[in-house]
Amino acid sequence: MRTFRKVFAVLALLSPVCAFAGSAFDGTWKTDLKQTQESKKPYEFILQNGMFDCKTCVPPFAIKADGQDHPVSGNPYFDTVAVEVVDANTIKTTYKKAGKVTETMSAILAADGKTGRNEYTDSSGSGAPVTGSYEFVRLAPGPAGSHAWSGKWQLSKALRVSDNATTWTWKEADGVLSLSQANGQSYSAKIDGTEAPFQGDPGVTSVKVKIAGNTLEESDLRNGKVVSVMTATVSADGKTLKVVTEDKLRNRTTSWVANKQ
Predict the structure, then answer these.
(1) Which one, 4, 41, 42, 227, has least CB within 10 Å?
(2) CATH entry, 12-37+167-260, from 3.40.50.150, 3.40.50.300, 1.10.10.10, 2.40.128.20
(3) What is the pTM of this model?
């Protein structure tokens, strides 16, 4: 669910505009998962009477939870979804686009029913698959008689995310910032906010980058519409980045820290 996973699958983050040899952003950076503050806005799912209703997906959808592929429109990362009820505490979801699996997820509830984790493999990009695990904390139960995963949940923390989604390289030269990441995401954009192509993410078609002093702002667009804005500020010693990511589609804000490698 690009719902959860996308929180980190877009870590390809991200004055006077001038041409200079290198910048404070040049180099390879890696996200420190322990210094991430997730959005407090809840996720809500209802699994009941054989139906799975993802109320906070963008766009929302409801399909039969019978393990079969069902069409879902409006999302650039998948066009079918299959929800399988593995047992009383586990749900497996498979996303496909044009018949190809783009993501698999297993939602596993803890014994006390108060927390759960999501184990995923995301193959929607052009590079090697991204894998990871997130922890969720229950905010409210689902309706009587629904599956134990039903209800409202808050994303608590990332337990694990593969290096290809948390490590990236920036290089600035002659007023152009280039990004490369092992998950296949890349761009080369002028630092004056000129729109440029974004490669390797089906949900992002272009990017705008601005650098003012020690702050970089990246706007990711989908067919001309801004879907996320990320602001990264490099520390005085050049060793860390403080980053704020605004998901415009879901109205969620995440803050985190990256360290220079």
Answers:
(1) 41
(2) 2.40.128.20
(3) 0.89
